[in-house]
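Cont'd.
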Amino acid sequence: MSDTQYDRDLDIAMQMADAARAAALPYFRAPLVVENKLDGGFDPVTAADRAAEQAMRDILERHRPDDGICGEEFGNKASTSGREWVLDPVDGTRAFIAGLPTWTVLIALADQGVPKIGVIDQPHNGERFIGWPGGACYQRGAERIELRNESENPITDAIMATTDPYLFEGDEGPIFQQLRNRVRLCRYGYDAYAYAMIAAGSIDLVVESGLQKYDVAALIPVVEGAGGRVTNWSGGPAHEGGQVIAAANAEIHSAAIEILKPAAR
Amino acid sequence: MSDTQYDRDLDIAMQMADAARAAALPYFRAPLVVENKLDGGFDPVTAADRAAEQAMRDILERHRPDDGICGEEFGNKASTSGREWVLDPVDGTRAFIAGLPTWTVLIALADQGVPKIGVIDQPHNGERFIGWPGGACYQRGAERIELRNESENPITDAIMATTDPYLFEGDEGPIFQQLRNRVRLCRYGYDAYAYAMIAAGSIDLVVESGLQKYDVAALIPVVEGAGGRVTNWSGGPAHEGGQVIAAANAEIHSAAIEILKPAAR
C-alpha cells in the first residue's frame, strides 16, 4: 500500500475497520432502539455505534496501549505516545437509521495532533477509502484502485455536496446559497461519503459547518492523499472540526473560500 | 416469488434488470461525457442511460413485441396488447455522475395504464427491490427477503426523504417546510432509492414534485406490495407523475396529505 513509516499503523487501521464492519452491520436495516442523547435536538445513538467503537478500542488496547483515543461514543483516553486515534464508529447515523448505504466508519491516526492516516469504510457496500501521507486508495473485495483526483474543473463546473442545507446557522445560510448558485449542481445527505467521492474524483467540493473533530479527522488524509485540499472556511487547519471545506483542486478551493470567507468564524 | 398471472412478466423484468446492470455499471465512476439535453437547465444524459435502456428494449423486442414502451431516453412505442413497459434506465442521474451508489434502474409493467409490477435495481450495491400485486421482496446475490412495512409510526416519528428541497415551486416550498417541521427527520438526495427504503421499512414518507411517469411507475408496485401507499398530493393516482407522496402507512399518508393539500395541483 505504501512504504511510509505508517505501514504498520495502516495494518492496525485495516483490522479496526474490519472489526467495526462486523460489529455494525448486523444492526443495519434491523429494528433499532434509537435513543436520544440530547434533550431537544435529535441525536440518535444506536447499539451499532457502541458495538463498532468498542470493537475498535479492543484492537487498540491490544496493539497500541500508549496511543490516545478520541471516540464519539466512549470519550477520550489520554496519549502517552504523542499519537491519537480519532474514531467515529457510525458517521451518518441518520442515514444509518433510514437504511441508506452511505453511513461510514471513520478512523484517523493523528501524530502530534495532525491526522496522518485516514479510513472511510462503508460496510454494506464493502467499500473502503484509505489515505496516508502522499497517497490514497479504494478497496472493495479483491479490487484495489489508486485514487488521484486530477480534476481541473473551475468552480462553475463543480459538483458540490453538503449533508443538510438546513444545518447552516446565521449568515452561513445565505452565503451557502451564493455558493450553491455558483456551482453546477449540489447533492445533499452523504456525510463523510461525499469526501470519499472527492478522493474518487466524482465530487469536486464539500462544504459543511458544525463538524466535530471525529467527523473530520479521517477525511483529511483521504482527500489530501488523493490530491485534494481540506481546510476551514478561512483556509486554516480543519482537523478540529467546525466549518470545513474540502475541494478537488486549488482553484475550486480558493474560489469557494472567496465566497465563504465573510461567514468564517 | 409469487403465484400471480405476472410470474412470466417478472422473469422478463429480472432479465431486463440484469441486462441494464451490465450495460450501465462500466460507466459508473468512469470519466463520463455529460451532455446537456436542455438549453439552460442542467439535465445530464450519459452513455449509461442509453446503453441500459437499449439493453432493456432489446429484451422486450424479443419477448414482448406487442407491448408498448415508455422510456426516458428513446421515447414511446405504441402498445397493441394493452400493456406498457415504463423504463427509467438511470434514475438519479445526478447521483450517478457524482459517484454516489444510490442511482437506480427502474422498470414497471403497466396493465391498462396501471403499474402492476415494479423493479428498483441498484447495480453497484447489487440490490434489487421487486413489487407485484400483493407482495414485494429484496434480492441481493443469494439473499432474498420478503418486504412488509408494518410501521405504526405517527407522522411526528416519521423519517422523511425528498430528492432536493429546492425543487419545490411556488407555494409547494413553504408547505414542504411545514411538513419538514412536523416529522422526526428529513434526508435528501436519494431519488427512487428512498421509495425502496419505504418498502424496506426504514423510511416512512417520501414527498416530491415534478416527477415524470417513468420516475414513478416502478415505485408504486414496490411500495404498495410492501404495504405502503403512493398517491398524488390530493390522494389520487400518482402513476402519471407530478406531485407524489409515498407513505409507510395510512396514518402518515393522511396526516401528510392534510398538510400538502393546499399546494396540490
